């Protein structure tokens, strides 16, 4: 992607410390045990207390870092609420712990809360069969299918128990925080109802994972909704951000705060157009086999070596591009004698 973000800061706050990025808005970073090794979280001054936005994953290291923040930046003022953008463990992982510690409510889009609650109860016995069926149909061989059971049900290990009640937040709602209005802008595709927060007074957008400066958020088809078109709804939801000021300060969940929002929106759309074309080319190159599988397209889209965690995300993203191509009428899907989906270009050429 050609976009070059206009980074506002040269560096990032050390773990357990905070930097003020706009009046009353503080940036902190927490560690992640993945290739993407950090998440950005946000603290908003809220009158006589604080509003927290996202929480980090449920590890002892993250809890210890929060304790350092509490001893420092809180300044003796209480946390008043916890807002979570979406259900992924690095965002909601410590929501239950924080809400219980400060006896405060969780604010979150309802479907994000419900999805997290559902996944936290999954086991191999409950979800294993649909995972095996999905990845077999996507073209994974026995070597990859053999490791699926190690991944099913892991969500609950990365979160503290999600609160049993939620204060729903929804697209277009304005939340008053510290005397300023923060408007909820819903993004889709990366997760069901990802909540971004925009403050017009500050010209600040907390974009979560929906808009990142260097990488596209993962937009995947998952076993729980195997026929979805998440890429289509992701691209549509990007249009909700095009009326924001060109000089908006974007606070993403990964990498650094940046300006250049409108250019980044165009860049994300262009990136996926390129990936769609590459996916069609992959289908054409496998015409002799009856078409490309999701696993075949993965090999065309992702040239670098992938660890197991990345491989499953990459497969979901490859299938997402194929499903959107079906929506656009550019490919057809058939199921072969082995129960594997194969995709063929409707034009017969890239």
Q: Brief description of this entry?
A:
The longest helix has 25 residues. The protein is built from ten helices and 16 strands. The chain has a seven-stranded mixed β-sheet with strand order 2-3-4-5-6-7-8.
Q: How is the topology of this model organized?
A:
Elements: E1 6-7, E2 19-22, E3 25-31, E4 38-46, E5 49-53, H1 60-71, E6 79-83, H2 89-92, H3 95-102, E7 106-108, H4 110-119, H5 124-137, H6 142-145, E8 167-168, E9 174-177, E10 180-187, E11 194-199, E12 204-208, H7 230-238, E13 249-252, E14 258-259, H8 261-285, H9 294-301, H10 308-328, E15 331-335, E16 341-345
Parallel strand pairs: 5-6, 6-7, 7-8, 12-13
Antiparallel strand pairs: 1-14, 2-3, 3-4, 4-5, 9-10, 10-11, 11-12, 15-16
Helix pairs in contact: 8-9, 8-10, 9-10
Would you mind describing this structure in some detail?
With 350 residues, this protein is α/β, with parallel strands linked by helices. It folds into 2 domains: 6-122 and 153-269, Metallo-beta-lactamase, Chain A; 275-345, Arc Repressor Mutant, subunit A, CATH 1.10.10. 33% of the residues lie in helices and 22% in strands. It is built from 10 helices and 16 strands. The strands form 4 sheets. It has a 7-stranded mixed β-sheet with strand order 2-3-4-5-6-7-8. 43% of the residues are buried. The model has no long low-confidence stretch (mean pLDDT 95).
């Amino acid at each position: 992607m050609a976009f070059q973000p206009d980074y506002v800061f040269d560096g990032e706050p050390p773990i357990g410390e905070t930097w003020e990025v706009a009046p009353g808005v503080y940036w902190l970073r927490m560690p992640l045990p993945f290739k993407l090794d950090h998440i950005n979280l946000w603290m908003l001054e809220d009158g006589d207390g604080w509003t927290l936005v996202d929480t980090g994953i449920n590890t002892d290291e993250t809890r210890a870092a929060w304790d350092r923040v509490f001893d420092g930046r809180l300044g003796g003022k209480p946390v008043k609420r916890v807002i979570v953008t979406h259900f992924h463990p690095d965002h909601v992982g410590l929501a239950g712990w924080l809400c219980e510690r400060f006896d405060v409510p969780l604010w979150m889009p309802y479907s994000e809360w419900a999805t997290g609650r559902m996944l936290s109860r999954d086991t191999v016995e409950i979800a294993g069969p649909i995972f095996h069926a999905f990845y077999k149909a996507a073209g994974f061989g026995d070597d990859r299918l053999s490791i699926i059971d190690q991944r099913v049900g892991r969500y609950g290990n990365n979160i503290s128990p999600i609160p049993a009640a939620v204060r729903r937040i929804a697209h277009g709602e304005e939340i008053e925080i510290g005397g300023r209005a923060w408007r909820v802008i819903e993004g889709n595709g990366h997760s069901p109802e990802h909540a971004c927060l925009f403050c017009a007074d500050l010209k600040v957008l907390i974009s979560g994972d929906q808009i990142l400066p260097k990488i596209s958020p993962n937009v995947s088809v998952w076993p729980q909704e195997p026929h979805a078109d998440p890429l289509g709804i992701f691209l549509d939801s990007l249009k909700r951000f095009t009326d924001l000021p060109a000089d908006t300060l974007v606070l993403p969940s990964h990498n650094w705060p940046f300006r250049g929002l409108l250019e980044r929106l165009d860049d994300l759309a262009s990136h996926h157009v390129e990936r769609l074309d590459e996916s069609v080319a992959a289908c054409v190159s496998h015409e002799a086999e009856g078409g490309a599988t999701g696993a075949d397209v993965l090999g065309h889209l992702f040239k670098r070596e992938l660890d197991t965690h990345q491989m499953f995300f990459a497969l979901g993203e490859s299938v997402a591009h194929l499903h959107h191509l079906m929506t656009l009428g550019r490919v057809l899907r058939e199921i072969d004698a082995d129960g594997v989906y194969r995709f063929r270009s409707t034009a017969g050429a890239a």
